[in-house]
Amino acid sequence: MKYSQRILSLLSVTIVTLLFYNGIHKSDSDPETQTHKTYKIKTLGIPNGLNLAGERVPIEINDVKERMERELLVNTYWQSNGILLIKRANKYFPILEPLLKKHNLPDDFKFLALAESGFTDETSSAGAAGMWHFMRTTGKEYGLEINDNVDERYNIEKSTEVAAEYLKKSKARLGSWTLAAAAYNAGNYGISRRIKAQQVDNYYDALLPNETERYIFRILALKEIITNPKKYGFVFEEKDLYTFEETKTVKVDTVISNLTVFAKKFGMNYKELKIHNPWLRENKLNNRSRKLYEIKVPVK
Asked: Does residue 35 surpass a pLDDT of 80?
């Protein structure tokens, strides 16, 4: 008898618990969608005044509006990637901004660099490398040193100078910064050939390869989100953002047979040296030509 009473008591407790849990579950859910009541996916309005380097985006054209909305949605709701890009932008934009100004390039092109590489040192499947994602042949054509020992595509100052030169030439050839940015993705010849064949004179009226069709809008979406992060739901504090520690420059015109030993002379390890000088690709600097290199070391 006592055993039966225990069983009945346990069953009663179990039933009450299940009913209670089910009640909570139902109260927190939308019966029509089966999702939690706080879970919402909002569409995003297209902001007014969108422009790239001061050149207006014609949102009144239907397909332009749809392509812009696509990139805003993708880059807003890919939350983990978005917050990482915001953090890295805080680290690299202060370096890029004065360089862009120095080389007479619109400030908006810092978002092109972000769209290209995400500010990581990963090489693309096509072999493009560095912040500006130069191919080896293009980098060499513009005077960058690229070999197994030194790869200046990873040198922020030198690669930005080359990117500025390339983009300014493209703008002179194609007539707008927007087309110059598109040419950074598809090549000057590819863009000029298509707009000539289609008898149009701007990016937004041209039918281009899918990657290039999305390229400008991704740059615009990153500009909009990173300029107005809270508007798109990204919440953080200043201490959450990435920064570079202060560095000074050491000029070297000799061979460095061991960069680990060199690094220790300046109170850092090999990893720290490579973080600040990713263009050094080996644990030595050959420099048989006695070229003058500038190596960054932390100020401690």
From this structure: no
